[in-house]
Design goal:
single chain; mainly alpha; Four Helix Bundle (Hemerythrin (Met), subunit A); 2 domains
Length: about 375
């Protein structure tokens, strides 16, 4: 039964991947990418990698398609027909795929008990985690404590990526101004169903994010997953009620500050360990009892991870939304996007030329 389930999931993954590469409608490709992430999460579940599945579901099937859709709103929905680039891309993918398949020959068989990963560090993690770290979730022990320095590097990478997006989009962002006839009310969704459903869902999303954040020691979860879920709540609020509305809750400056604060919390936890005579990120120095110190350190660094991940995701959504507003302002100034007032009919009519212009510009 497990084998049939694995074959079915792999077959669906293959069909989805080929469809993403083949289809020219980029919006459909974004939706398929979310499906691919969800299927990957299911495949990880069958392998027993629950934490990895959780991360893939939150990132691959959750926020990534949303950010791709925001990108498509700027660059257009349909892919340009460029056969030379398509051939080059196919050649590159085939070459890299052949190299990866060749490399798997030297890899140990899946589940091999004599594999280096099984014989080197895994026994120590499995046998010593409860005594040394004192938490049930061994994955959290590995990520937050045993290889905490590596996780710190991952958080810095996320922060750096956010700075990169900030520098690219802020450098080309127009001066903040309202497009003619575009008020805060007009930016809100006029669909009463969306507004009611959003109001019902946002609070449970935030509560679940807090649960995932502080329950990572005992079950699947942690700062990475919680940060993405928390960001999804803010992004959903912004999509339904408008950018100005969500900025009243968390301004752009506050989000930028929090993206750095999370990294600072993580780094200062390691420095505090050094100040107490232990190694960097050796949390046993944070309390008289080593296990209690591990608990305190893991809670602190997971909080830092969650803050940085959530802040960076929200900041990126703010930047893309501001770019969209600038595009509307530019089109309105050129007469391409006519101002027709605050009525729902006027909004629908004014949005249509913008969409058509972007699709034509994308080929």
């Amino acid at each position: 039964m497990d084998l049939l389930l694995d074959i079915a999931l792999l077959a669906l993954l293959l069909v989805t991947a080929v469809s993403i590469a083949w289809i020219k409608d980029l919006f459909a490709a974004a939706m398929l990418a979310g499906i691919y992430g969800l299927l990957s999460a299911g495949f990880f579940m069958t392998m027993g990698a629950v934490d990895v599945a959780f991360t893939e579901a939150a990132v691959g099937a959750g926020i990534s398609p949303l950010l791709i859709v925001l990108t498509l709103a700027l660059c257009g929905r349909y892919q340009r027909a460029d056969r030379d680039r398509a051939r080059l891309a196919v050649a590159l993918v085939v070459t890299v795929g052949a190299l990866l398949i060749t490399a798997t020959v030297d890899m140990p068989s899946f589940g091999d008990a004599n594999a280096p990963a099984q014989a080197h560090v895994a026994p120590h993690y499995i046998q010593g985690s409860q005594e040394e770290i004192g938490i049930p979730n061994i994955v959290t022990s590995v990520l937050a404590s045993y290889r905490g320095f590596d996780t710190f590097g991952e958080v810095v990478v996320i922060f750096t990526a956010g700075l990169g997006v900030l520098s690219l989009l802020m450098g080309s962002a127009p001066a903040p101004q309202q497009a003619p006839g575009h008020s805060l009310v007009q930016q809100q969704s006029r669909d009463i169903v969306l507004r009611v459903v959003a109001k019902v869902l946002i609070a449970p999303i935030m509560l679940y994010a807090l649960y995932v954040q502080f329950h990572g020691e005992y079950g699947p979860g942690g700062g990475f997953q919680a940060g993405v879920i928390f960001a999804v709540g803010f992004i959903l609020y912004g999509l339904v009620f408008g950018l100005d509305a969500v900025r009243k809750v968390a301004s752009h400056g506050l989000v930028q500050l929090l993206s750095a604060v999370g990294v600072l919390v993580f780094g200062c936890t390691g420095l505090l360990s050094l100040a107490n005579g232990k190694n960097f990120l050796d949390y046993s120095a944070l309390a008289g009892d080593a296990v209690t110190g591990q608990h305190i350190g893991i809670i602190a660094i997971e909080l830092g991870v969650g803050i940085t991940v959530a802040a960076v995701m929200i900041m990126i959504s703010y930047l893309f939304t501001a770019q969209l507003r600038g595009r509307e302002t530019e089109l309105s100034a050129k007469g391409i996007l006519p101002t027709t007032g605050n009525t729902p009919e006027g909004q629908a009519n004014s949005a249509l030329p913008s969409l058509q212009t972007q699709e034509q510009g994308a080929g």
